[in-house]
Structures are given as structure tokens and as C-alpha cells.
Write a structure and sequence with these properties.
This protein is of the alpha+beta class. It has 9 helices and 10 strands. The chain is 53% helix and 16% strand. The longest helix is centred in the first third of the chain and has 42 residues, at 41-82.
Length: 307
């Protein structure tokens, strides 16, 4: 009896309609709610009013900034080409500069949209610092190359002494300067080493002074030696009258009396006059019987009687 009653109750429950979810009729479907919340005319007008000017400004900054970046990169490349930088390096440099400026333009565009770029700027700054540390020597050479081009302590064709190496300047590149020594050896000197040391430019001035030290013996007639040296300078027509040449007794050495002979010549005549003048003086000394003393030593021998 009891089991029959339970069975009838289950049948009644099975035939009954399932209960409706609470408040199902009160909530609209999700699509309708989305349209009402974000796609209604009022919301669209409000969104366009709020973000429209920012979007237009961001697009304008990106377009104009990209054009400015290309223009600046082109100007730098043209300046480097006038400095005779290698064409392969110019292409690489153009791409790097353009990329760096484009990153700056993108950050400025994002800021126009209201995006917080503080974290992005910090990441880029850290990456730039790491790259700068890794390329410290290379970037230093580039900066030194720019200084050499701007301040021009020497130019192509000058005869200079850089970091202990003397030669004619063949080319000034972005990273290094190329010299050609008198014996036709090509020397590449990093620009960073050049700006960090002394630069001797022998071609910068139009006139140079020849410094000769001529020694004669103590038994020679000093007045006759001086007259001959004056004659030697007068016979050389490439020696300038202004400034006036100097001939003077500079030192009473251990084995010789030393004259200084200092004539002035044009820079391009320096080596030729120096070589010819040295030869002329040597031949003149031989003809007149003057001596070129050389270091000597006197040995005194004492003989003592045996005990």
C-alpha cells in the first residue's frame, strides 16, 4: 500500500512542468543588453566625442612623426656621405636611426590615446642602456668621428702624427681614420684614440722651421764656421727671409761646440730643404777642414815598478 502511494507521487511529479528559473522574464538577453549598454546612439556619440579627437591626434602624430623620422635619417646620411662614409655603413645607419625614431613616434602616438607608456619607456630605456654598454667602444668611436668632422683638427691630405703614428690622412671614416705612412703602409687608427690623445698636424700652417744642430771641434775657428753656416743658408733660395733664420752657439758639449741652425721654409719644402742643407753643410765642412767631433775617450796607462 505504501509503495503504491510512493509510485503515484513520482508519476505526478514527472507529469508536472519544471519550475521556471527565477526572474527569467525580468532580465533581457545578453545581446540586447550589449546593444543597450554600448551600441546605443547615445553611447556611440559619447564614445566618439571622448575618444575621437585622441584617435585623430594619435594618427596625425604617427603619420607626421614617421615622415620627420625619415627626413632626419636622410639628413644624417647625407652629412655622413659628405664625410665619405662607406655606402654599406650608410644603409645600415639609415635603418637604425629610422627605427629608433619610429619607436619614439609610436610612444608619442600611444600617449595621445591616453595609454600609460611609463612601463614601456622604462623597458626601452633599460634595453638602450644595455645596448649602449655593450657597444660602448663603438659608440665612442662614432662620437669621436663626429667631433673630428665638426671641429676639423685635420683634413684629408694633411700630414699628421696620431697616437705615435705619422702619415698622410687618406680618409676620415665614422669609426676610424686611415693614414698612409711615408713608406706606403696603410694604418687604421680608431677615432676614440685620436680624440683622447695629442694631434700633431704638420700641414696646418703654411711655414715650418727646420731645426739643425751642427757641432764643430774645439780647435776649429768659430767665426769661420759661423760664416760658412750663414753662407749655406744664403745659398738655399727656398729659405724664407721672414722670419729671419737663426744661427747661434747653443752648447759647449763634451767633445764639440754645438751650433743651432734654424731657417724657416714653406711647409711643402720642409723635407727637401732639410736634406739638401744637411748635405751642403757636410760637404762644406770637408772642403774647409772643419771637423765633426765624435765622442772619444782618453786612456792613461801608468807603469809601476815591481816590488
Amino acid at each position: 500500500m505504501e509503495s503504491a502511494m510512493r509510485l503515484s507521487d513520482l508519476l505526478i511529479l514527472a507529469e508536472a512542468e519544471p519550475p521556471a528559473p527565477p526572474d527569467s522574464a525580468e532580465k533581457p538577453p545578453f545581446i540586447d543588453m550589449l546593444k543597450e549598454e554600448y551600441l546605443s546612439p547615445d553611447k556611440l556619440v559619447e564614445t566618439a566625442t571622448t575618444y575621437g579627437p585622441k584617435l585623430v591626434a594619435a594618427i596625425a602624430v604617427f603619420v607626421i612623426g614617421r615622415w620627420v623620422a625619415r627626413f632626419i635619417a636622410g639628413m644624417i646620411v647625407q652629412a655622413s656621405r659628405r664625410a665619405k662614409v662607406d655606402e654599406t655603413l650608410l644603409g645600415f645607419m639609415r635603418n637604425v636611426i629610422n627605427l629608433m625614431l619610429l619607436v619614439v613616434v609610436c610612444i608619442a602616438s600611444l600617449e595621445c590615446l591616453g595609454v600609460d607608456t611609463t612601463s614601456l619607456s622604462a623597458i626601452l630605456a633599460a634595453a638602450g642602456f644595455a645596448i649602449g654598454m655593450a657597444l660602448q667602444g663603438t659608440l665612442g668611436n662614432i662620437a669621436s668621428g663626429v667631433m673630428l668632422v665638426v671641429f676639423k683638427p685635420f683634413k684629408v691630405g694633411d700630414y699628421v702624427e696620431l697616437t705615435g703614428t705619422s702619415g698622410k690622412v687618406v680618409e676620415i671614416q665614422m669609426f676610424s681614420t686611415i693614414l698612409l705612412t711615408p713608406d706606403n703602409v696603410r694604418v687604421v687608427v680608431p677615432n676614440g684614440n685620436i680624440t683622447g690623445g695629442a694631434i700633431s698636424n704638420y700641414s696646418a700652417e703654411s711655414r715650418r722651421r727646420i731645426d739643425l744642430v751642427i757641432g764643430c771641434g774645439y780647435n776649429d775657428d768659430l767665426r769661420a764656421v759661423r760664416e760658412f753656416l750663414e753662407e749655406a743658408l744664403t745659398a738655399e733660395n727656398r729659405i724664407l727671409d721672414d722670419p729671419e733664420p737663426v744661427i747661434a752657439v747653443a752648447e759647449l758639449g763634451d767633445s764639440s761646440v754645438n751650433f743651432v741652425v734654424r731657417p724657416w721654409v714653406n711647409s711643402e719644402d720642409y723635407w727637401a730643404v732639410k736634406f739638401d742643407l744637411t748635405e751642403y753643410i757636410k760637404l762644406g765642412f770637408d772642403e774647409r777642414g772643419f771637423t765633426f767631433p765624435f765622442p772619444s775617450r782618453d786612456v792613461f796607462m801608468h807603469q809601476s815598478d815591481a816590488a
